[in-house]
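dumping these here so i dont lose them again. two proteins, back to back, each one seq then structure tokens. dont judge the mess
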Amino acid sequence: MGSFTNRLIHETSPYLIQHAHNPVEWFPWGPEAFERAKFENKPILVSIGYSACHWCHVMERESFEDENVAKRMNELLISIKVDREERPDIDGIYMSAVQQMHGHGGWPLNVFLLPDGRPFYGGTYFPPSDFRGMPSWLNVIEAIADAYHNQRETVENNANVLTNALVVPASDGLSDFTLDSTVAQNAFSIIASNFDKEHGGFGNAPKFPQTMPQEFLLRYYYRTGSNSARDMVEITMKKMASGGIYDHLGGGFSRYATDNQWVVPHFEKMLYDNALIASLYLQLYTITEDSTYRNLVHSIINYVGRDLKHPDGGFYSSQDADSEGEEGKYYVWTLEEIESLLGETSKIYRHIYGISSKGNFEGKNILHIAKSLSVSSEELNVEIGKLSKILESANTKLLDERNKRIRPTVDDKILTSWNALMLRVLAEAGFTFDCNEYIRMAEDNAKFLLTNLYKNNRLLRTWKDQKAHLLGYLEDYAFLANALISLHVATFSHEWLVKARLLIDQMIELFWDHEANKFYDVGYDHEELITRPYQVFDNAIPSGASAATEALIRMHKLTGVKDYFMKAETSLCGVAPLLSRYPLGFGNWLKVLELYLAETVELVVVGDPQIKLTKELVSPLRDNFFPFITFLGINPKSNMIFDTPLSIERINVETPTAYLCNNFICELPTGDPLELRFMLGL
């Protein structure tokens, strides 16, 4: 291949830069590409992917690096490359179009547009030659160009139909729906019917973690006492931790498993997945006090801190599935490698981790717990304690050896919303474990985001190489506001509550539509697209709207401001009928519904958070699962006090004191940790 450089060389996204030396004359998304398409009268290709996407790399190697294919693309099309992680608005619009056409989507996403931005055809991966009913990429683009020039009426009709289907109505007519516990009950029943009783998870392969429906199940368990709700979560999360989706050497979880037993992962590791999974394990730990869950939280945070952390406190987006051009090469092992490294102990290791000469992935082995320690102890006649030490030593040896391999590429752009998810779990883990290191990591991350990605009174989306750009989306504001509220709990610092409220107020101003009575994903100051995106479903991460609703409820419970509550209630009413019908697609909404339905209980603790008595007063929240309690910490030494009825006349107490309240009406204060536990029903 010759030496080429296209317009993507000036971008900051690693995914776009990966394509900067393709012979394809790629444009970044922007007016230049659309103006060129109009001037040259050509259809537009919008090709959307992300850095850790395996099939994106495959299509690049097969087609976009091929000079002959690129030549025809340059002759027939105006080609635009988009990083879906930077531009979820564009991805969301055109993914919906492809789903309208085919009933499914995925990445790479390849969509063909008229010069005005309306889609008329699209798909996902296309092979270099015809294969199993899929047309070759070259045949596709030839047919697209022919249809554009010679069947224009059909193309225009397709574009009109697709675009009309994408336009979100001003009102969905659901705002009068009554919110009550029957919605949660119906959702629970459907989730239970989709549960895999043997392997955990929901539905068939491929299997995704689906943390948000599980968070709902834990809250449903808390409210109703349903052990089956809790059991579904425990079974799933134990099976995941035993499977190959979990990196048993380096920590962290892959995106999903290609099988229904969690053994064979799609090896890419995403920051958001690991943040959400760590949060779920943390909640399980507070319910069960099972050290296995605590250790998994530590393992995930250690992975993120080691492999995805910027020196200044931000977190990178992902780690690739591929290394040296092969999917999973970094993670898999041959039997011979295991025997050579471990010697006599390899027999035990093979027994537990399911190592064989045949392997379980293209002739090699993905590490997974094939047999538990208790079963292995009995079958091998080795006590569990000794087995644990053998495994610990063996895993250290294997990790040292793995570290000599070429690592998968890290996508080192820093996204506000994904960082906020990690910030939140760091704050909550720091609080639960009383771990200053995690709290420091959370504070460093908050300072990084607010220093580098908040400019000119506007939150931005992405940062890399000292450059922040792209207007922040609803999810950026909502996730960060929620994270800062949690950071207050861990630190008692009212600075974080002040900033959280500022973000929430700006969020309402930018994204709330007073006619439609809902949040849109992009602000009123965003560039004009063919429709204003509104993502109602919770997908791999919570939808911006569900996270915004959670932030509104949490801030209402702190401040008593009715407008926050009314907007949250309106948002919930708008989606409530969907929650009962499609609960697995509305997991975070269901979690928020539980928060909405819960009795309002506040706990105020006044005292220096670093002294023993204050810690003892806070300990009930550290040691137990209280998903619905609103907490306010007041440090008398602080010169900043958040404006809330909960803080009035409670600043100047002489010794650490706790106030248990209901709708801002408080019981008599106590400085006795045992009495507080009694008041909390413990």
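---- next one ----
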Amino acid sequence: MQTTPKRYTITAALPYTNGPVHIGHLAGVYVPADIYARYQRLQNKDVAFVCGSDEHGVPITIKAKKEGITPQEVVDKYHGIIKKSFEDFGISFDNYSRTSAKIHHNTASAFFKKLYEDGKFIEEVTEQLYDAEANQFLADRFILGTCPKCGFEESYGDQCENCGTSHNATDLINPKSAITGNTPVLKETRHWFLPLDQYEGFLKEWILKDHKKDWKSNVYGQCKSWIDDGLRARAVTRDLDWGIPVPVEGGEGKVLYVWFDAPIGYISATKEWAEREGKDWEPYWKDEDSKLLHFIGKDNIVFHCIIFPSMLKAEGNFILPDNVPANEFLNLEGNKISTSKNWAVWLHEYLEEFPNQQDVLRYVLTANAPETKDNDFTWSDFQARNNNELVAIFGNFINRVVVLTNKYYDGIVPEASDFSEVDKQTLKELQAYPAVIASSIERYRFREAQQELMNVARLGNKYLADEEPWKTIKTDEARTKTVMYVALQIASALSILSEPFLPFTSEKLRNMLTSASLSDQQSNETPIVVEGWNDVTSKTELIKPGHQIGKGSLLFSKIEDEQIQKQLDKLEASKKANEAMNKTVEPEKETVQFDDFTKLDMRVGTIIEAEKMPKTKKLLVLKVDTGIDVRTIVSGIAESFKAEDVIGKKVTVLVNLAPRKLRGVESQGMILMTETAEGKLSFVNPDTSTPLSTGAGVENGATIN
């Protein structure tokens, strides 16, 4: 690989279309990939940044069956949601495609046929579970049975969700088809396999030797573990009716395995883009002077570092990835993100609930990026980083510069006089930042790069605080002009250096600095604001004296506690819903005889007084009119009800329960309660909606039969 590639082919992992995109996907894959692509474009590099929806595979068919719709309807729905979310969030794909597209089917089919004709596959006949009634072979996720290890009765064919053990579908005890419920039978089927073991020598040389020093340790370590464990042949086809049909004789009723077809989606997305732009796609994938990069999460390392490169090697005409900067996982409020449990921050919901605040999320996700280890996203950190960093540092500096320029000079950039040593040092430091930030980006250290960007804003704030133009304006006009000139150079630099990280902010700032009246200015030159990344270093003047800037507007706004509480409440609701779903019903108690039950005397009563028992969390002291008498009852309901809220409530009372003392107070009975799905107590209420024969409601003292 040349040190200065002619072009960059940048891929981001294809999101799976059985649900929307969440912050874990963004932090691990799409934000770092976008930062890198935007940065390279600012360097005037030739970039193809591609992605697309991964639309095949068994989970799609399961979801379709569950919802009573077709697989195509499932992928159309989520492809639309994902694509729009990415667009609204500012992920700057050159092309966002989909694997159900004709161009992808054709590309993947041609790729398979080339390997098939070159004799790169092996064929094997194996026995697989088959549902005779459904007339189809069962994919692992369509088989349920008892886990051979822990005894969990609803284990899938590939993995037990209870104990986490991986196994074969044939290992399950009493396997059942998830489609019909029938017991499947073993039936022979023929499939094609990619013999990965034949590529061990190539992979050892290419990864373990050539990329030992430049690949991330987590990526290198996982690859080494796989290779050391010994690679085995992997099926590239499966018996399924949803996917790309196997394009050779004997492939009837079979499709390409999704792990085989999905990465080819990068190639078809590039072809689709090139066709649209009138370019040749092949140099981006076949020329040695192109740099191929895969941005992925750690769960995809084996596919992008071992399997896909082996496929490309087998095909024989493609370049291999220069780097695969995989990230670890992002957690949410201390727990693993789970789509099934709705424990996630969904991108499309965030965009609705925080309008025009895309950059805040981009900033926080980059600041917390799980680059070397799993990291945690919390809403309190989100709020703090916005208010204490974006608002207080970046936004504050720009606001002061623009407001003071408009106040002192009607928005016209002033002419500098003699530069002090502080001025020279500040400008020199400013010119060094593009290289510093670039170095971090080129090494895929995006957290570090963003910190350096914020240091530019800190440089500006410190400069203004030290030079105090709001004071010198009264005593030294020439000095004030110089200070404001320098501050405007820093602001101009920020407008370009922030673009990879905060693209919406960058655009807003550039518009502010160029002003709406730019077209009306006398000069036909375009020296107003810096255009390219390296201009910050090479140009001595980024914004020229005499130029009219626009009026100021806030780049960022404070995020209030109420907004954060709303998000925490959403998560709490998800947690409770999951607990309710997973709650085990208490088993039935011992059988009692009817005569024993008749001994219970239950009456309707009304709570007429209530107070919290001192020094307790759970107990309320109640006065209850039972119709027989007014008695004291101590009840452990204080965590579910306030004392003032229960006065006047109709309740069911067990009146002939033997009295007992609780915290020194004699309790004369029991109020009957039940528990809601959320774990809150609820009164077993007498039915007051049905009138008695007299036409009155249920009276105190009425018996419960």
